[in-house]
Specification:
Largest sheet: 3 strands, antiparallel
Number of helices: 5
Number of strands: 3
Radius of gyration: 25 Å
Helix content: 40-55%
Strand order of the largest sheet: 1-2-3
Oligomer: single chain
Shape: extended
Length: 148
Amino acid sequence: MVVGRKPRFSFASSMTTASSSASILSRSKIEVVNRKFELLRAVTDTKRGLTATLEQRSSLEEILVSVESFNAWKPVELRLLDGTWRLQYTSAPDVLILLQSAATFPFFEVDQIFQNFECGDQTREGVVRNIVIWSIPRLLEVIAAELR
């Protein structure tokens, strides 16, 4: 090593940089988890989106965008989405109409709504199936009472 010249590689500064990067990564992961919990808390009082006000929808959209932004630079790995997911919130009119019908008609009940996503080994596309578990409980009670 020549006196008066800085070394080209400094182990200490490299470790500090690695430590800083790990710390930033940890904070980033913690922030993602916090945002996801914030999102789940925000949808709790919306009856899966049915009673969400415009203000709530706007707030939820902002939180969702902030969660998505953590991986904005990465391509979506469809295989990680493969599976069945339970609906917590939606703004999709075709699903909201089911929830509205259940709220309007006392004989119609929507229990759970799921989405099943299958992509197999494909990396560019998949198949989405909506699964709605519903019943007509009052109708069954009336029929049972008449059969007695």
